[in-house]
Write a structure and sequence with these properties.
This protein is mostly helical. It is built from 7 helices and no strands. α1 packs antiparallel against α3, α1 crosses α7 and α2 crosses α3. The radius of gyration is 14 Å and the shape is globular. The two termini are about 20 Å apart.
Length: about 140
Protein backbone atom coordinates (compact mmCIF):
# COMPACT_ATOMS: atom_id res chain seq x y z
CA UNK A 1 0.00 0.00 0.00
CA UNK A 2 2.12 2.92 1.25
CA UNK A 3 5.88 2.84 1.36
CA UNK A 4 7.79 4.02 4.42
CA UNK A 5 8.77 7.16 2.51
CA UNK A 6 5.14 7.87 1.54
CA UNK A 7 4.02 7.42 5.16
CA UNK A 8 6.61 9.95 6.29
CA UNK A 9 5.61 12.36 3.52
CA UNK A 10 1.94 12.11 4.52
CA UNK A 11 2.71 12.59 8.22
CA UNK A 12 4.88 15.63 7.40
CA UNK A 13 2.17 17.21 5.24
CA UNK A 14 -0.52 16.78 7.91
CA UNK A 15 1.81 18.08 10.61
CA UNK A 16 2.26 21.24 8.50
CA UNK A 17 -1.48 21.58 7.98
CA UNK A 18 -2.63 21.15 11.57
CA UNK A 19 -2.35 24.89 12.33
CA UNK A 20 -4.75 25.66 9.46
CA UNK A 21 -7.06 22.69 10.07
CA UNK A 22 -10.19 24.85 10.17
CA UNK A 23 -9.48 26.42 6.81
CA UNK A 24 -8.63 23.22 4.96
CA UNK A 25 -11.38 21.15 6.55
CA UNK A 26 -14.09 23.73 5.97
CA UNK A 27 -12.89 24.23 2.39
CA UNK A 28 -13.12 20.48 1.70
CA UNK A 29 -16.55 20.24 3.35
CA UNK A 30 -17.88 23.22 1.41
CA UNK A 31 -16.57 21.70 -1.83
CA UNK A 32 -18.35 18.43 -1.00
CA UNK A 33 -21.63 20.16 -0.14
CA UNK A 34 -21.48 22.23 -3.33
CA UNK A 35 -20.45 19.42 -5.67
CA UNK A 36 -22.53 16.69 -4.04
CA UNK A 37 -25.61 18.43 -2.58
CA UNK A 38 -27.03 15.16 -1.25
CA UNK A 39 -24.22 15.03 1.30
CA UNK A 40 -25.76 18.05 3.08
CA UNK A 41 -28.62 15.94 4.42
CA UNK A 42 -26.52 14.91 7.43
CA UNK A 43 -25.86 18.54 8.32
CA UNK A 44 -29.35 20.01 7.99
CA UNK A 45 -29.33 21.06 11.65
CA UNK A 46 -26.12 23.08 11.25
CA UNK A 47 -25.20 26.32 9.54
CA UNK A 48 -22.95 25.13 6.73
CA UNK A 49 -22.55 28.44 4.94
CA UNK A 50 -19.00 29.48 4.01
CA UNK A 51 -16.85 30.34 7.05
CA UNK A 52 -19.69 29.55 9.50
CA UNK A 53 -18.70 28.44 12.99
CA UNK A 54 -20.23 24.98 12.43
CA UNK A 55 -18.39 24.44 9.16
CA UNK A 56 -15.07 25.60 10.61
CA UNK A 57 -15.51 23.48 13.73
CA UNK A 58 -16.44 20.29 11.91
CA UNK A 59 -13.75 20.86 9.28
CA UNK A 60 -11.16 21.19 12.01
CA UNK A 61 -12.33 17.95 13.69
CA UNK A 62 -12.02 16.07 10.43
CA UNK A 63 -8.55 17.40 9.59
CA UNK A 64 -7.28 16.68 13.11
CA UNK A 65 -8.60 13.10 12.87
CA UNK A 66 -6.92 12.65 9.48
CA UNK A 67 -3.69 14.15 10.82
CA UNK A 68 -3.80 11.93 13.91
CA UNK A 69 -4.29 8.86 11.73
CA UNK A 70 -1.30 9.88 9.62
CA UNK A 71 0.98 9.67 12.64
CA UNK A 72 0.72 5.86 12.63
CA UNK A 73 -0.93 4.64 9.45
CA UNK A 74 -0.29 1.00 10.35
CA UNK A 75 -2.74 1.42 13.26
CA UNK A 76 -5.41 3.25 11.28
CA UNK A 77 -8.14 0.69 11.98
CA UNK A 78 -7.46 0.72 15.71
CA UNK A 79 -7.21 4.50 15.92
CA UNK A 80 -10.39 5.09 13.91
CA UNK A 81 -12.54 2.53 15.75
CA UNK A 82 -14.45 5.18 17.75
CA UNK A 83 -15.14 7.20 14.59
CA UNK A 84 -16.24 4.05 12.74
CA UNK A 85 -18.83 3.33 15.41
CA UNK A 86 -19.99 6.95 15.62
CA UNK A 87 -20.49 7.33 11.88
CA UNK A 88 -21.99 3.88 11.26
CA UNK A 89 -24.27 3.36 14.24
CA UNK A 90 -25.08 6.76 15.69
CA UNK A 91 -24.87 9.24 12.80
CA UNK A 92 -25.64 6.66 10.10
CA UNK A 93 -23.67 8.50 7.46
CA UNK A 94 -23.78 7.00 3.98
CA UNK A 95 -20.25 5.57 3.58
CA UNK A 96 -20.09 6.86 0.00
CA UNK A 97 -19.65 10.32 1.52
CA UNK A 98 -16.25 9.32 2.90
CA UNK A 99 -14.98 8.73 -0.64
CA UNK A 100 -16.57 11.92 -1.91
CA UNK A 101 -15.00 13.88 0.93
CA UNK A 102 -11.55 12.41 0.26
CA UNK A 103 -11.72 13.67 -3.33
CA UNK A 104 -12.75 17.12 -2.14
CA UNK A 105 -9.93 17.06 0.40
CA UNK A 106 -7.42 16.37 -2.38
CA UNK A 107 -8.63 19.48 -4.19
CA UNK A 108 -8.46 21.56 -0.99
CA UNK A 109 -4.92 20.31 -0.37
CA UNK A 110 -3.87 21.17 -3.92
CA UNK A 111 -5.27 24.68 -3.54
CA UNK A 112 -3.67 25.23 -0.15
CA UNK A 113 -0.27 23.63 -0.84
CA UNK A 114 0.14 24.82 -4.43
CA UNK A 115 3.43 23.72 -5.96
CA UNK A 116 4.31 21.79 -2.78
CA UNK A 117 1.53 19.35 -3.65
CA UNK A 118 3.61 17.46 -6.19
CA UNK A 119 2.39 14.50 -8.17
CA UNK A 120 4.19 12.25 -5.70
CA UNK A 121 2.51 13.92 -2.72
CA UNK A 122 -0.83 13.78 -4.53
CA UNK A 123 -0.51 10.05 -5.25
CA UNK A 124 0.56 9.26 -1.67
CA UNK A 125 -2.22 11.39 -0.20
CA UNK A 126 -4.79 9.79 -2.49
CA UNK A 127 -3.74 6.35 -1.24
CA UNK A 128 -3.90 7.48 2.37
CA UNK A 129 -7.28 9.20 2.10
CA UNK A 130 -8.68 6.17 0.26
CA UNK A 131 -7.49 3.95 3.10
CA UNK A 132 -8.93 6.38 5.66
CA UNK A 133 -12.32 6.33 3.89
CA UNK A 134 -12.24 2.54 3.59
CA UNK A 135 -11.49 2.10 7.28
CA UNK A 136 -14.35 4.43 8.24
CA UNK A 137 -16.69 2.38 6.04
CA UNK A 138 -15.69 -1.01 7.52
CA UNK A 139 -18.44 -1.06 10.15
CA UNK A 140 -21.08 -0.90 7.44
CA UNK A 141 -20.39 -4.46 6.24
Amino acid sequence: MLSTWEKKLIADIWARLTPVAEDIGSDALLRMFTTFPGSKVYFSHLDISPRSAHLLSHGKKIVLAIAEGAKDISQLTVNLAPLQTLHAYQLRIDPTNFKLFSHCMLVALAVHLGDDFTHVAHAAMDKYLSAFAAVLAEKYR
